[in-house]
Amino acid sequence: MSKAFTKETDDDVEPDDDLPALPAGVKNYITPEGLRRMQDEFAELHQVERPKLVETVAWAAGNGDRSENGDYIYGKRRLREIDRRLRFLRKRMEIAEVVDPTRQTNRERVFFGARVEYLTSQNEAKRLRIVGIDEARSELGEVSWISPIAKALLRAEVGDIFEVRTPGGMERIEVVKIEY
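The structure assignment produced for this chain is given below.
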């Protein structure tokens, strides 16, 4: 039977490459480190992981019946995931606008790339760094420049006090320290 008339798996539908999308009219600012991480991930997927997987899928395809061949089915699914991620990374790197925070001349205010220390209304000290959309990692205290906390902090100076909407409600914060 021709392969054109068979369906290898039930989940062959290609999800949209563009998720998560950038908000309309927003530039894709990124730090040099964030761009480097994206380039490294792209290189790892393209030059190491994908070729190994292609080799595995070719080997599995040579074993005959593909309908119950786990190596083949999983490999094809993983190849689609890798290709989707590669397309996403390529698109994002093409539109990235690198902003180097070390070149910031006004170090008295919070701008993109700044590390900010602030006190909450419970006198709890917190630190975060304002970075690009594609490089934000909350577990490391890095937040996107379009997040509510970052929007509130941008252009703030040491000593500024203001309220920010958080998942728990409104929170009063005071900027204590700014570093680049």
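Interim note for the steering committee: The first helix runs from residue 32 to 61. The domain at 101-179 is CATH 3.10.50.30 (Chitinase A; domain 3).
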